[in-house]
Design brief:
- The protein is of the alpha/beta class and 446 residues long.
- It contains 16 helices and 8 strands.
- The strands form 2 sheets. Strands 3-2-6-7-1-8 form a 6-stranded parallel beta sheet. A two-stranded parallel sheet has the order 4-5.
- Strand 6 (356-359), helix 15 (367-377) and strand 7 form a beta-alpha-beta unit.
- Helix 3 (58-78) packs antiparallel against helix 4 and helix 8 runs antiparallel to helix 9 (230-242).
Length: 446
Amino acid sequence: MSEEQIRSYIIDKDSYDKNILVEAGAGAGKTRLIIQRVIGQIGAGIPVEKIVLITFTNAAANELYERIQAGLTENIAKCSGEEKKLYENAVMNLQRMKISTIHSFCLSMLSEQPFEADLHLGLKLAEDGETKQAQADFFERYYRTNGANIEDFGFLNSNQYKLRDSRVKNFLMETFLECAEYRDVEFVRDKSYDSVTFDTINKLAYKEMCNYRDSLVRAFYNGALGGKYEDIAGFLVDDVTKKLPDDMKTYEPKYNYLKACKKFLEPFNKTKIKKDHPKSNENMAIFSPSGFDNVKKENALYALNKTATYIEQAVKAYQDSEDGESVSNDGLLYHTHELLKNSSEARAFFKDKYSCIYIDEFQDTDVMQTELLLYLCADDSNLVAGGDIWQCPLRNGALFAVGDPKQSIYGFRDADIRLYNKMKAKFQNNNEKNCEFFSLAYSLGK
């Protein structure tokens, strides 16, 4: 079909039983197609309360409302009989059509099924500032009860700072606040480090300190580092031995060998070496304690595992503590997703209520948003608990989406091109006879 034929088909009643994804650039008239198709469906007898339009800003939602209202008013003047009555009734009841952001739509669904979602009857959306303050207050209480062992976070130490409990707490709080709102955050770590303790890393540091001390001292006193390296070697041996514990023959658990390792590395600061030995610009690799690289690596992985475990437990405790009255934006998405995923009764209720869902700017939709919309649009009669909603066919005429992958602006919310392409492939799948994909190239304006 030509582009003119595609546009005509999309707004024609013969396409109303199809699920359609339209890909087009800026100015190609995607929003105009939505408005024309919605008005056409109303003229075909679909009640306004059965239609949902999802966009990503309140301003865009208000614009859609005004343009649909104007289009319906124009049609009243052009039509007669039963069709005119349908348009007149639609204008009178247009406020019953859901034209909103995804978060407002989720809030309305949760408000209708609060007990099924295990939430309060008077559910309300928390302001961003309120949410962040509530999260910070929770972590303060949580940390007082479940304080972290500061030695577990020794990687926060540096030459400029002493390791203090307040520094560890601030680091953990910042990390917690980054994760607390996002219900679908995944804590990736190497679980083989679950059984590793600070003592394990400390013993490794002790072993490498002993190896380095012995090899350097032996090489120096055997003359292996003579000649041009002799004065440097002497300086290093003297500096290193000063930093050793009194007794390096036996591992002492109370001594922080990991911290001592960092002191060992100080002589290898080139500025210091050059200051004390102006002629020592040559390769210093021969003196580098390479074994300490493994200590740093193991300590970093150990600390990462400790951090991920601590934050995961804190986030879970916070989310379990939510009172169900005030929910953040991400909480709205999560609770709605879980409601539709786990309750066949809720899915049936909303599918009966809404026959067609429109999504503007689909390229900016993230994974959770897309899946909860699929739960509303899918023919999931054979979906079992935990089943893959992506594998379910769509109900006839349940979904109409428009998007431009080149304009994705919410990549930070996980709205990446892979998700868009996954949905595109679903619409292009020959097995789904009621799904159609169209690409429009030229510009018509809004």
